[in-house]
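Recap from last week: sequence in, structure out.
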Amino acid sequence: MNEQFTGQVAVVTGAASGLGLAIAKRLRPLGARVAMLDLNERALHKASEEVGEDTFPRTLDLTDQAAVGTVIEKIGAEFGRIDILVNSAGVTGKTNIKSHEVDASDLRFVFDVNFMASFFTARAVLPWMLKRNYGRILHIASIAGKEGNAGMLAYSASKAAVIGMTKVQGKEYAETGITINALAPAVIQTPMVDAMPEEQVKYMTDKIPMKRCGTLDEIAHMATFIVSPGTGFTTGFTFDMTGGRATY
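Predicted structure tokens:
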């Protein structure tokens, strides 16, 4: 077994299901100790059991900056290091609606989960990474953040903000041994997508030349590559995973 992450500590948000769980399942057999963060306590502990030993579930509201700081400090203090952060937690908010129908409270909620939570976790782990002049941060963005999906103002705008943050952070820490990148998938078959209106999913899938959703295995494979020790000369970049939709 190629345990390329042996000794490393990874923090994965949204780890109770979907992308986060798939990524945790990929990192653990490769040697990483994985701190799994999610708000859903029951689902999180079940997911941790699925992933196996050397996983550490932490129930957490990622939109609470103080709580995020406390949990990250405890993880760093317990292991003496944090090498990887994958921000997978995300929500779509209300979809299949025009901009004039968007409720401001829903917009704020989506931004809090998709953007502010990613900012809070990155802000908290960066001092631990700077201590060792090494780190890998991956923000899960979306093709919607590049192109905008009609009917998904809150989601598209929040993911555009994630991409903007990635570009800034990549430049700020480029000389420190820390890389900060984003991954922009098209539609990935997850519980979040399953809960969306059929019309909205069809609108997104029809834009994909491969005419299918991506799989959790495919995104976990790509995420693992991005946060691997060998991917050290790419930072501030948004990786494409769109079945041919994004060609730039």
